[in-house]
Every structure is written in structure tokens, then in C-alpha cells.
Amino acid sequence: MSFSRRWQNFVTEQIKKIYVHGYIKPEQSFYTLTEWEGFVNQILKFQKDGHYVSHGHGEIVGPEDLKKLIDDFYGFQINVDVSRYDLLTTKNVLDHIEDFSNHRFWSLEKQFGQYFNDMSKLKFAYFYSRGDLEPYVLVDDTFTEQVYGSTDNPKVLYHYTHKEGVERIQRSIDSGKPFDISAYTVAERDFFRSKSNLIMEFRGNVRAGFRSDVKSYSVSNGRKCVNLHRLGYPGKDKDNLCTDLDNDCNGELKTSLWNEFIVTPLEILDVYKK
Fold first, then answer.
1. Which of 130, 134, 108 is nearest to 36 (CA)?
2. Structural domains counted in the chain
3. CA atoms within 13 A on the CB side of 200
4. Are residues 84 and 158 in the same domain?
5. What global pTM score does this model have?
6. Average pLDDT of span 118-133
7. Which of 16, 17, 13, 14 is nearest to 178 (CA)?
8. How many CB atoms lie within 10 A of CB 164?
9. Residue from 8, 189, 145 nearest 82 by CA
10. What is the pairing mode between strands 24-25 and 216-219?
11. 24 and 133 co-located in one domain
12. Looking at the structure, do residues 117 and 191 belong to the same domain, yes or no?
């Protein structure tokens, strides 16, 4: 099977299992820091042998082992996301790979390690966001356990949605296969999607909490991932990641937007017009 066909099959088959707004990212695009280090060291070895990722000027050229390596780590971005975003090209992805291997990876842990107890246990991927490929961390059980000491974190929250969205969430709860969604408890700005004209009050199991909005994508395993660049927060005394879900994430909004929780719905309590 060709690299392109492999990723197109993901789009047409796997994402049918998850009913959420927006694009689904594949779980297999996420890797640990050790796995990413293996990737960049292989890219550096290919460079030493004269095979530079940027030599193709937007085309993947070189030995088959190099092409397969790029597909394993960036095949989704090249074969799926490039066609989705007008400002993203294959050349952008290949330039990112070269820059990441030569420079960015080697400061990644220093840049973001302050937010986690053990960054080496988490998984990361790079996806398009606002003109660049940016780092995302997978909010899986390992993430939640590391931040909160437990994966059992019930809380009553609110979710902007519409009639079909409520029905999809209820079906997922009934089926025993719920998927994670974004939710909030306080908001100062109206939600930006006009179609989302309902507010769903529900009880859910929190995977992560943030003082202000955090750019997130749904993942094919039912979890979500969040943008590492959104872990900063105005001021010098706090970051955006809430470590105390009861007392640390429901107060002031220095961004004048809304707080955000990544949460698995357990029970819909009420639905009303916003």
C-alpha cells in the first residue's frame, strides 16, 4: 500500500468511529521524546550521507528508508493536512523536519519541561496551526495521572453545542464508548461558532484543565491533544495548566475568554439555549 493510500484510508475509515467537530488526528502520529530523538538522529545521519530533506524543494527524495521514516512520523501531515490547509505545503513540512532535526528538538524539553513532572513519559506530535507546525501533547491516561495523580476526576461542566451534538454525545455515553470534548465553567466571551446555540450542562471525568482556552484537536483513540504553546498564561506567577481542579481553574480570566477542560462526558444533566 502506498504511503498516500495508507493515510487516506485513515481519513475515510478510522475517523467514522468518532463524532466530533473538526479534524481528527491519528494516535500513531504521537511519539515519546526518546522516539523523536531516534527520528532526528536518523535524519541527521541521512544528512551526513548527503541526503538532505530540503533537497527535493517540496518533493520527498532520497533512499526508500528515508521516505519511510518521514512517512512514519509525518505521513499524515503530508498526505492529509497539506490538502486541508491553504497555507500548508509539503515544502513547509519538509523544511520543518530539517529545522526540527537540526535545532528545535534539542531545546524542546528545556522549553516545555517546566510544565510536567516527567515529560519523557508523554507523547507529542506536530500539527498545523495558524501558519506553522506546532507541538501538541496527547492528553492520555499517562498525562492525567501525572498531573492529577488519578484518572478519576468527576466535575460538573458546560459545553457549547447544537441539537445534533447533544444527540451524538448521548449516543456515545449509551454505547459505553464516550469521546473527550472541550468544556468550561466560566466564560466572558461568547463562543465563536454560531451553529453552537445550545449549552449542555453535564457531569464528566476531567482529563485536563486550563485557566484559559487551549488549542486542541480530537485524536482517533477518543482522547484529545493540546497545543504546548498555549501552556503560557498572562503574568509571571501562573501557567495555563490547572493542577487543582476544584480550586485552581474557576476564577479570574486574564484573557477575557473562557477556561477550558478536556473531559469525558458521563451524564447529561440539562440542555438550554445560550
1. 108
2. 2
3. 23
4. no
5. 0.91
6. 95
7. 17
8. 10
9. 8
10. parallel
11. yes
12. no
Please name the residues in contact with 70: beta carbons below 8 A apart, sequence gap of 6 or more: 53, 60, 78, 94, 97
Amino acid letter at 88?
Answer: L
Structural domain range at position 213: 144-273
The mean pLDDT value for 67-95 works out to 94
Residues in the chain: 274
* Residue whose C-alpha cell is 492525567: 144
What one-character-per-residue DSSP string does the chain give?
Answer: --HHHHHHHHHHHGGGG---SSPEEPGGG-B-HHHHHHHHHHHHHHHHTT--GGGGSSS--S-HHHHHHHHHHHHHIIIIIHHH-TT--HHHHHHHHHHIIIIIHHHHHHHHGGG-S-GGGS-EEEEEETTEEEEEEEESHHHHHHHHS-S--EEEEEEEE-HHHHHHHHHHHHHT----EEEBS-BSS--S-TT--EEEEEEEEEEEEESS---EEEETTS-EEEEGGGG--SSSS--SEES-TTTSSSS--TTSSB-EEEEEEEEEEEEEE-
Is residue 6 within 8 A of residue 12, CB to CB? The reply is no
CA dist 212 and 31 (Å) reads: 26
% pLDDT > 70, the chain: 91
Identify which has the larger pLDDT, 241 or 13.
Answer: 241
